[in-house]
Amino acid sequence: MKYIAGLLIPFYILCGNVNPELISAESQKWTAGISSGGSGVNYKIILKLNSSNTNFDVLWTGNEKLEIKVNKYGSKPGIQETPEKGDTVVITATRRILPDYKQTEEKEKISIPEFQGEGLIEYHVGNKSKGLVIEKFEEKKPLKYQ
Can you give the pTM of this predicted structure? Predict the structure, then answer.
């Protein structure tokens, strides 16, 4: 039995958990300075990577599928760096709500994944699809642009 445990511990250390570790998740409502500008919610999620080949796809909040931007924590704006194992990454997304008269796009019919919590990040580690549930977003003070 000790022999088997001795083999499994190094295996776990080598293969271990490849899922990213959630450090923080926050949301911030905003309102545009003009009525036709609409309103929305900004999302910011900080994760620590446990694998070099992690690719993030989308953020789900309720039944909304949001495009995301992924940057290494502390990288200069506009500079794309490939995150590696052990790096901290920042994922940002925005949900924009336009006034009814400005809503011109028809929403595509999409399959909404089932999850418990306020958000879900879909991602891949290698060729395996995965999801990271965000139980709750910490709400920041709303922004009112002038």
Answer: 0.81
| Degrees, nearest 5: CA angle 84-132-83 | 10
pLDDT single digits (tens) 21-52: 999 999 999 998 887 888 999 999 999 999 98
> What does the DSSP assignment read for 86-138?
T-EEEEEEEEEE--GGG--SPPPP-PPPP-SSSEEEEEEETTEEEEEEE--PE
126: left (phi over 0), alpha (psi -120 to 50) or beta: left
Which amino acid does the sequence have at 114?
A: E
Pick the closest to residue 70 from 85, 86, 59 (CA basis). Answer: 59
Model pLDDT for residues 42-89, shown as the tens digit of each residue: 999 999 999 988 999 999 998 899 999 999 998 887 777 788 899 999
> Two tokens at 14?
């080598």
CA atoms of 106 and 109, how far apart (whole Å): 9
Cα–Cα distance measured from residue 73 to residue 77, given in angstroms and rounded to the nearest whole number: 10
